[in-house]
Amino acid sequence: MTSQTDTRLSALGVVRIDGSDAERFLRNQLTNDVFRLGPDRHFLAAWCDAKGRTQMIVQVVATPECWYLLLPREILDGVVKRLKMYVLRDDVRVTEESDALALIGHIDAPTAPDVNTTTTEGDSLHIGLASTVDGRRRSITIVDSTAADTDLASDTTSWDLATIDAGVPQIAAATQGAFVPQMLNLHWLMAIDFDKGCYPGQEVVARLHYRGRLTRRVFRLGCIGAPPAPGSDIFDTDGTRCGTVLQAARAGDDTSRLLAVVAVDRAERVVKLDDDRELSFLDLAYATPA
């Protein structure tokens, strides 16, 4: 039986959305439908530009007072600035809460909520996330920074690796605007609602869903050596670029695992990083039907 691991997720930030028009505002911006959420639920969603290219992947957490968006800090400032541009005359407030709130990641917490479920304990929110391919349960606690344990581990390697092993992609600064949501497996992660109304890039996303063919998608891979940086290129044996690294984490003393968008027709071939390290294809935690 594995023991619980708790980590301060300092690389993640929080954006608070509130106001009388906040629910409608988010519904008109995100690929998933916040009308389906209540204070006991949360889900994954994407925010796209007009060309359907993903600008962020975000965990959307509903509360009775507001919505919290959890996303990487490195893209947070730009996201907040762009979201505010869409507010116009709506009664919506977009506020960064990353310093006021702490995010604590848990692996194999015995009291972790079910996937997409939110529970409340005092002033803390607990959200259950998708498990890893080998069944480790992931969850996050959202708590006031003043109440967070200051002795928590700050090395996020275990958490980053668990996110990779759950097959959940992240968008970094190096990969913003590079992929439509389906290339990021977001339809298989229930992060796209194809029945809801318009949002930026919706026509492109819908066209691929109903008429197109997915030629690139997220794969989980392994390699020898240090983790490659987000945005690193992947090549086939002919030297043709065929993929892009999304995120990576060290898995052992001399091994790493990663998520990358790779051309589907290269999945049965040898692919390499730009430094010639060979990549091995690994199972994902969910089905990816053709």
From TrEMBL:
Organism of derivation: Salinisphaera japonica YTM-1
Annotated NCBIfam families: ygfZ_signature (TIGR03317)
InterPro entries in the cross-refs: TrmE/GcvT-like, YgfZ/GCV_T_CS, YgfZ/GcvT
SUPFAM superfamilies membership: Folate-binding domain
Name of the protein in its database record: Folate-binding protein
GO terms of biological process kind: iron-sulfur cluster assembly
UniProt superkingdom: Bacteria
Record key words, sorted: Transit peptide
